[in-house]
């Protein structure tokens, strides 16, 4: 499935939410490695338009405007990808949404939004891709969870619950498909410099940086490198794990 860059057949990779933020960095990482990348988001961005126009990515970049919380749209996306490339080697469940607020004041609508995307859409998409991986003999799944699912964070109890649930999903699915050459792991990410962390005020961000041994917020590339490690075909004995990538914040 993977080999030194430039010398292997391209892998087919689905990365959800690749239009910006962490997903954008992950898409760029796999495109740079020579792979075929399919991604989706509810709307197109400059990054997507740039990839679509770049002749270097001709025939190996696919984007669809999809709301993953809409099951039919999600299924249609999978159909498009398989129609194009037949099978999927790697699935990175990255798309996620955070809604900030103490539970006593948290709305039903925000609760549904967070659970529908972070958890239910991830399960729905993974089920379809696992069927394909089982049929074609293996694969790699990486779920992007969060240290808030491990340690908790005030104002992010519902979001943290979905991320802790994703880690449980990782462990259960890893047991189910381990004998079929499919690995499933989570990356519990620390705080990154993306739009999602814009919900934190400057005081909170400075406090996080002060408490982080590495002394900075994370970049998408910090997470993309960890994903590359987990999906390497040689790493077939690492499965059902939650790899914390957070600059040491939770050490
Ligand atoms: P972000 O900047 O808000 O980007 C989220 C991506 O997901 C965008 O491409 C967005 O595009 C897409 N998306 C959102 N809702 C969607 C939907 N319903 N259907 C399809 N796509 C949707 O967030 P990020 O910081 O890159 O976060 C990426 C992942 O890392 C998330 O799972 C997040 O929980 C996790 N994480 C982030 C941090 C952090 O500090 N940023 C920390 C730990 C974990 P559209 O809005 O156009 O749909």
Overview of the molecule:
The structure is a single chain. With 251 residues, this protein is of the alpha/beta class. The chain has 8 helices and 7 strands; from the N terminus they run βαβαβαβαβααβααβ. It has a single domain, classed as NAD(P)-binding Rossmann-like Domain (Rossmann fold, 3-Layer(aba) Sandwich), CATH 3.40.50. 44% of the residues lie in helices and 16% in strands. β4, α4 and β5 form a beta-alpha-beta unit. It starts with 11 loop residues before the first strand and ends in a 6-residue tail after the last strand. NADP nicotinamide-adenine-dinucleotide phosphate (NAP) binds at residues 17, 19-23, 40-43, 66-69, 94-97, 117, 144, 146, 189, 191-192, 194-197.
In short:
The chain is of the alpha/beta class and 251 residues long. The protein has a single domain (12-245), classed as NAD(P)-binding Rossmann-like Domain (Rossmann fold).
CATH fold name: Rossmann fold
Helix content: 40-55%
Total strands: 7
Q: What is the CATH top level name?
A: Alpha Beta
Q: Span between N and C termini?
A: 33 Å
Morphology: globular
> What is the second-level CATH architecture?
3-Layer(aba) Sandwich
Instruction: Kindly report the name of the CATH homologous superfamily.
Output: NAD(P)-binding Rossmann-like Domain
List ligands, each type once: NADP nicotinamide-adenine-dinucleotide phosphate
Q: Structural class, please?
A: alpha/beta
**Number of helix segments?**
8
Unreliable stretches: none
The rounded Rg comes to 17 Å
Major sheet characteristics:
7 strands, parallel
């Amino acid at each position: 499935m993977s080999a030194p860059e430039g010398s292997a057949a391209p892998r087919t990779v689905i990365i959800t939410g690749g239009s910006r933020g962490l997903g954008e960095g992950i898409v760029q990482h796999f495109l740079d490695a020579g792979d075929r990348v399919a991604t989706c988001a509810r709307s197109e961005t400059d990054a997507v338009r740039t990839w679509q126009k770049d002749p270097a990515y001709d025939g190996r970049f696919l984007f669809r405007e999809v709301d993953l919380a809409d099951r039919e749209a999600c299924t249609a996306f999978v159909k498009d990808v398989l129609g194009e490339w037949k099978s999927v080697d790697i699935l990175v469940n990255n798309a996620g949404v955070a809604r900030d607020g103490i539970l006593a004041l948290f709305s039903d609508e925000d609760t549904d939004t967070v659970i529908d995307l972070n958890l239910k859409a991830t399960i729905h998409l993974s089920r379809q891709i696992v069927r394909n991986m089982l049929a074609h003999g293996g694969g790699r799944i990486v779920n992007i969870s969060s240290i808030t699912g491990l340690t908790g964070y005030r104002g992010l109890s519902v979001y943290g619950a979905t991320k802790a649930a994703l880690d449980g999903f990782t462990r259960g699915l890893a047991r189910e498909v381990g004998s079929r050459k499919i690995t499933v792991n989570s990356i519990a990410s620390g705080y990154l410099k993306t739009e999602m962390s814009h919900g934190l005020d400057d005081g909170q961000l400075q406090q996080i940086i002060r408490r982080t041994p590495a002394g900075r917020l994370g970049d998408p590339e910090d997470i993309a490198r960890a994903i590359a490690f987990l999906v390497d075909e040689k790493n077939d004995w690492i499965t059902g794990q939650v790899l914390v990538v957070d600059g040491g914040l939770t050490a």
